[in-house]
Design a protein that fits this description.
about 0% strand
């Protein structure tokens, strides 16, 4: 029986990668906003927005489906090679198709001379042929994924600071932005031979079409659901309102990314155990749910308490109206974290058709609520619409997958987590009130609030606090 990678170790690697994914773009944005300037960045954002539709659709649903397919085939070398090869062929055909569509769109928009930025960003579509990230995720090679990702992101950031010096360097900056993605794909291809091989003998890519197309449909609906709020705000409100919403969302994304990073590594293991050991699948799913809730709740409370200072520190006095927006967004951290585990169950059990139904309903709910709330409450109405839609999505998926979904909540967990939140809230509020400097106040609130929350969990024997403490001690012993 192959040795299963440590989920705790994979989680730590994934958290490190997510931190890097959040911090480096933030630092890069602070730098290029002062060199490329708003006009140039606006051009890049416009091109990136168009290309993002093609980069989302070109791989169909393979990035999600591939994790499940690879994880289930990993114990059989021949089946692993066959599955990998079939998905590579399917991805290549789809990429060529959407590249042709992209070229047609450029021709219709610009005739025979598309602007240079559109050609540069087109490399992201072309390079999707090399996109095999799902192979390494399915094999639970999160150490490799994280080390490679951090190295590439750091290198590209360093090149940006060294080479991008003025607004005239807009094309160089665009090329470096694309280089981060293309480099990851290229390194993956060079490394893949260590785990499997590519073959064109006795393969049948079409056997994967149904789940892949269902997931592709989900991606389309998800794109509508996640983009429609900004679109409607832009139509119905002044541009400043759009900025309040967008920047509050960026701040919320940091917390959400760190929460979901802890248990995102469970997806391949859940897919594997669903086929091989249903009891273990149920146990891991319950553990993932409790972990996400245990981490997401204090994260949301911390964002809510520190929002007045956090917004001013990150974005300045002009963004003061976004304070309430960020506080409302903090609820999305919890809803998305719970939804992430439900999504993992859907993918691991092959229930992607339920996700398609849920996102279709979510689009309707989201559009209706945005139209109802934005005229009166502006960006805050859009946040409420987003949070309510996420809760609706979670409830629909819970209904469809209730037979395979394990929640794992116990009275002991609820009580100890609640008491920990009380401690965190009191500590963070006192620190915020007593410390005048915004940066110091936030840091002290976060550190001492987290310590108080963890201590309360351990004293009250919270299952997840004890689990995290035990896993950290194990990792410490292994590396001493």
């Amino acid at each position: 029986m192959p040795v299963k990678p440590s989920l705790a170790k994979n989680s730590l690697f994934n958290i490190a990668l997510q931190l890097c994914t959040v911090v480096i773009p933030l630092l890069s944005s602070m730098y290029v906003s002062r060199t490329i300037l708003p006009d140039g960045l606006g051009e890049i954002a416009t091109v990136d927005n168009l290309v993002s539709y093609f980069t989302a659709l070109a791989p169909l649903g393979i990035p999600a489906y591939g994790i499940r397919a690879i994880s289930r085939a990993r114990d059989d070398e021949e089946e692993l090679s066959r599955t990998f090869s079939e998905l590579v062929v399917l991805n290549a055909v789809s990429t060529v198709l959407f590249l042709v569509v992209y070229a047609a769109v450029l021709f219709l928009l610009f005739g025979g001379a598309p602007p240079t930025l559109y050609l540069i960003y087109g490399s992201l579509i072309v390079s999707n042929v090399l996109n095999i990230e799902w192979l390494f995720s399915g094999l639970e090679q999160f150490a490799y994924i994280s080390i490679r990702g951090i190295a590439v992101k750091t290198l590209v950031f360093a090149l940006t600071v060294l080479l991008v010096r003025s607004p005239e360097d807009i094309y160089l900056y665009a090329a470096l932005t694309c280089l981060a993605t293309v480099s990851n794909y290229f390194v993956n291809v060079l490394s893949a031979h260590r785990w499997t091989r590519l073959t064109l003998r006795e393969i049948n890519p079409l056997r994967h079409m149904r789940p892949v197309l269902v997931l592709a449909g989900t991606i389309v609906l998800f794109s509508i659901y996640t983009k429609i709020d900004v679109t409607l705000l832009g139509i119905m409100c002044p541009s400043a309102v759009v900025a309040y919403y967008s920047y509050a969302y960026k701040a919320e994304e940091i917390g959400k990314s760190l929460c979901t990073a802890v248990t995102s590594v469970y997806t391949p293991r859940l897919s594997y155990e669903f086929v091989n050991d249903r009891a273990e699948h149920s146990r891991l799913l319950g553990q993932a749910m409790l972990l996400n809730v245990y981490i997401a709740l204090p994260m949301a409370l911390g964002v809510c308490v520190t929002a007045p200072r956090l917004v001013l520190l990150l974005f300045g006095e002009a963004f003061a109206p976004a304070v309430l927006t960020l506080q409302l967004f903090s609820m999305l951290i919890v809803a998305k974290s719970i939804g992430n585990v439900i999504y993992q169950n859907v993918i691991s059990t092959g229930g992607e058709r339920f996700q398609l139904v849920a996102y279709a309903a979510g689009c309707v709910v989201n559009i209706a609520l945005n139209l109802l709330l934005i005229p009166t409450f502006q960006q805050n109405g859009a946040v409420v619409a987003t949070v309510v839609t996420e809760i609706v999505l979670d409830c629909i998926l819970v209904y469809f997958t209730k037979d395979s979904l394990t929640m794992g909540f116990t009275p002991s967990f609820v009580f100890s987590t609640g008491m920990g939140l009380v401690v965190l809230g009191v500590v963070a509020s006192v620190c915020t009130y007593c410390i005048g400097n915004d940066l110091v106040g936030i840091l002290v609130s976060v550190v001492f609030g987290a310590l108080g929350y963890a201590a309360a969990g351990i004293i009250l024997k919270n299952e997840m606090a004890l689990l995290l403490s035990a896993e950290l001690r194990k990792l410490k012993r292994r590396h001493l």
